[in-house]
Amino acid sequence: MRLARSSVLRFAKTLVPIGGLALLGLATPAVAQPIANPVASFAGLDKITGRITRFDVYIDETVLFGALEITPHACYSRPSTEAQRTSAFLEVDQRSLTGVSKRIFSGWMFADSPALNAIDHAIYDVWLVECKVSTDVPSPDQR
Question: Which residues belong to the signal peptide in this entry (predicted)?
Answer without folding.
Answer: 1-32
